[in-house]
Design brief:
The complex is a heterodimer of chains A (247) and B (514).
Chain A (H helix, E strand, L loop, with lengths): L4 E10 L2 E11 L4 E5 L6 H9 L6 E6 L2 E5 L2 E2 L8 E4 L11 H6 L7 H14 L15 H13 L5 E5 L7 H18 L2 E6 L2 H7 L2 E6 L2 E6 L1 H6 L4 H8 L8
Parallel strand pairs in A: 3-9, 3-10, 7-8, 8-9
Antiparallel strand pairs in A: 1-2, 1-4, 4-5, 5-6, 10-11
Chain B lengths: L7 H30 L9 H34 L5 H9 L6 H12 L8 H7 L2 H25 L3 H8 L4 H30 L2 H5 L5 H10 L5 H26 L22 H25 L11 H29 L3 H15 L2 H12 L5 H4 L3 H11 L1 H12 L4 H8 L4 H12 L1 H16 L5 H4 L7 H8 L5 H25 L8
Helix pairs in contact in B: 1-11, 1-13, 1-14, 1-15, 1-17, 2-3, 2-6, 2-8, 3-12, 4-6, 4-12, 6-8, 7-8, 8-11, 10-11, 11-14, 11-15, 12-24, 13-14, 13-17, 13-18, 13-21, 13-23, 15-17, 18-21, 19-20, 21-24, 23-24
The chains are: A alpha/beta (247), B mainly alpha (514).
Chain lengths: 247, 514
Amino acid sequence: MTPAIELDAVRLRVGTTMVLDELSFGVAAGELLALLGPSGSGKTTAIRAILGFVAPDAGVIRLGGRVASEPRRVVIPPEQRGVGAVFQDLALWPHLTVHGNLAFGLVHLARHERDARIAAVLERVDLTGKARRYPGELSGGERQRVAIARALVLEPRVIALDEPLANLDVILKRELLDLFAALLRERRAAAIYVTHDPQEAEAIADRVAVIDAGRLVQVGTIADLRANPTLPLVDQLLSSPRRARSD
Amino acid sequence: MNVGRRWQEPVALGVCAAVLLGCAAAPFVALIGEGQHADAYALLSAGSTWSLLARSLAIAGAVTSLAVVIGVPLGVLLGRSDVGARRLALFVHVFPMFLPPFLLALGWFHVLGQSGALGTRATAGVLFAPAGLVVVLALAFAPIVSSLTLLGLDAIDPSLIDAARLVARPPRVIARILVPIAWPAIVLAALVVFALAFSELGVPMFLRVRVYPAAVFARLGGVDYAPGEAFALVLPQLAVGALILGLERRVMRRRSLTVLGLRREQPAFALGRWWPVATILCWAIALLGLVPIAALAARASWRELGPWIGSSVGNTLIDGALAATVIAACGIVVGRGLARGQLAARALDALALLAFVAPSAVLGAGLIAVWNRPETQVVYATSAIVVVGYVARYAILGTRPIAIALARSTVALEDAAANVGAGYFRRLVRIVIPIHARTVVAAWLLALVFCLRDLETTVLYYPPGGETLLVQIFGLEANGKPSVIAGLAMLHVAITAGVVALGLVLLRGRTRAP
């Protein structure tokens, strides 16, 4: 079966630093892969390459079997990739309402269809009645819900989540993690979830890919990784969430 | 801990407050005082006064509109697209902003005036008319709009753009996300341009277009000398200045320090098939700004300049450097206070902004009212009055950039120093200034450049023998030899270019600000 996302020997250099080094992995439709790694390991750069914001220096990125990026060339521009994203700082447009934030990517739909889709997603994330609010008028948890709703309303084939729950308290994180997991599974989209927290990875992911210095160190279920860590780093990351920091 | 040094901060703020109140607030207060015994208020009931005011407001509005129409697209294209050689194009476009509009008008005269390089009776007719004035000023001020638009775009969190790029093509991202978020910076630019256009004296007088500030000038330094009438005439201008200040406060509210970003490299949008058109357009507008400078250079006679270069060059540089130093020093103290949300600093910032946006004739008339008395001749009859005027008018150029830089860095840096016992002055000298040295230097240079380009205030009260280069050129314009005037203008351009080049050298490299 063709993976929804496939990175094939991707290399990317920023200045003199090799940020991604022969990075290869795939994510199947409906699968949720957690990308786990220490600070500066290349997690966020890998996501930016998948989103089409940077082109690799070598290697290929495929989406649904189609070449999306090839060496030094973004073949499919970001807006045509059908990839939804939730950013670490959420990136909600402050001058647009919740409805405006969700509607921005749906201009191709007729108004009634667009409104219906937005209403359904907002209901699913418990934000019915908040459509006319601005991001600045929402609580932290509500903003997180808007961010995931904005990604889901596009009905993307692939969703990338770049540490979406960083800096949240434990209770809110748990609540949102459950919501995210349920939403991603019911949508059957391929998802990449960047985190430095093994507990988050364990709670949400089918498989975990550990990367360090831009290289894939190990991939498997969290139980496999715990049982057979190939490097001390994997053991460290999985046993001590506080020792690893975000990119 | 630094409990014993708590007096330091109030003292520093108090000294700066004394300087700014003495320079910038006293003139406004004095004007109100002058009004008590001025019997010139009959002038304000004359219909001709109000029609002249309306005409000036209309011209300033037209200049602002055209400058925004030119400046915003150029700011977006040069700031966020892959236009060919965009850094060079940006420099070429922005450079004329540092020159006095009067010099640019002089250059346009050598292009479009009847005896100009491309001049005919028709082009001269257009140039020496309100339409010519609007175009000349709009081209002079458009770089201000471009620059502030660009800085507004720089303040936008890149992830907001990434999020939009996932679902929309670049033109829609620019129109629906970038420009609306940068809107407060664009409004700020429009207000600044409006204030400058409404204050402008040199260009309308040169192009023989009647405007309100010229009426004030005529009563202070011209043939219709009547200071009482001048004080009465500036009152409506003061109201316009207060209105602009009110608009700025309303638009910015508490966001003023986060509206503008510090220049940093941002990813550029690929223009695709529009690249050639956009590149040609950007470069055409940028080069258009250099046309009057090229015309001045062509007309200038360097050999004849010798006898004409007197003390005005030294006056220009010394007065400007002194004022810029005071402005930067106050900027550090007030800007820091502003970034920390101190009420006193906010009040001083509002005063500095009022002095900047208020028509220069208001400030000039007020300074005359304050300082032109027997006991203050030590200031009024010397170059000190020029420095006082510069500090009053351009203090905002010190406080705002420094406040923006400090607001964007963490308070913890100072807290950590305070925690180990560093008092206010030590924190300022050892922590704040070294970390933000580039911003302080930039503020000093910006203030210096604006002092160099000042004509509107200086011309009202420059002391005997204390004229600046620009005042000298303005004085010679009516009867002087064109080649000499063009030569002196090019000397001014060269001095400004030198200061800008110094800035580029000093501001090179990476900032230490986190």
